[in-house]
Design goal:
Layout: E1 17-19, H1 21-32, E2 40-44, E3 56-60, E4 68-72, E5 75-79, H2 84-87, E6 90-96, E7 101-106, E8 112-113, E9 120-121
Parallel strand pairs: 1-6, 2-5
Antiparallel strand pairs: 2-3, 4-5, 6-7, 8-9
C-alpha cells in the first residue's frame, strides 16, 4: 500500500501586478468592446523603444499556460510569462485627462526610462 504525503495548505500567491479600480474598469470596458474571440486582456513587455522594453496591452484569444492569470472584476487579465520578472510588484492604473488617456505603470523594477516615457530598462 502506498500513501501520498499530506498536502500543505498553501496561501494564495499575490499577483505580480496590482490593477487599480480604474485599471479594472478600463479592462471591463475593453472586454465589453472586445472581438468575439477575445478571452481577456494581456500585458507584455516587448523589446522596443530607446530604453529597451515597453508596456503593451492587447486582447488575447488563447490562454497560455506560461502566462500569469488574474481574475479582475473587469474580466480576465493575463501577464506574459516572459514579462513577469520585469513586472513583479508593479501597479497598473488607468488615467485620463483632457489631452491623454492610457495605462500608467509604477514599476519598482524599472531602473530608468526614456525621456518620452514610452520605454523602460531594468
Amino acid at each position: 500500500m502506498t500513501t501520498t504525503p499530506p498536502q500543505k495548505a498553501g496561501r494564495a500567491r499575490p499577483a505580480a501586478v496590482i490593477l487599480t479600480a480604474a485599471a479594472q474598469a478600463r479592462v471591463a470596458k475593453l472586454m465589453a468592446e472586445a472581438p468575439a474571440d477575445a478571452i481577456g486582456v494581456k500585458l507584455s513587455t516587448p523589446r522596443r523603444g530607446c530604453s529597451g522594453l515597453a508596456y503593451s496591452v492587447d486582447y488575447v484569444s488563447d490562454a497560455n499556460a506560461m502566462d500569469e492569470r488574474i481574475e479582475t472584476s473587469g474580466g480576465l487579465f493575463f501577464i506574459d510569462g516572459a514579462s513577469v520578472l520585469y513586472l513583479i510588484g508593479s501597479t497598473m492604473d488607468w488615467q485620463e485627462d483632457d489631452f491623454t488617456a492610457g495605462f500608467v505603470f509604477q514599476n519598482p523594477n524599472a531602473k530608468g526610462a526614456c525621456g518620452c516615457g514610452e520605454s523602460f530598462t531594468v
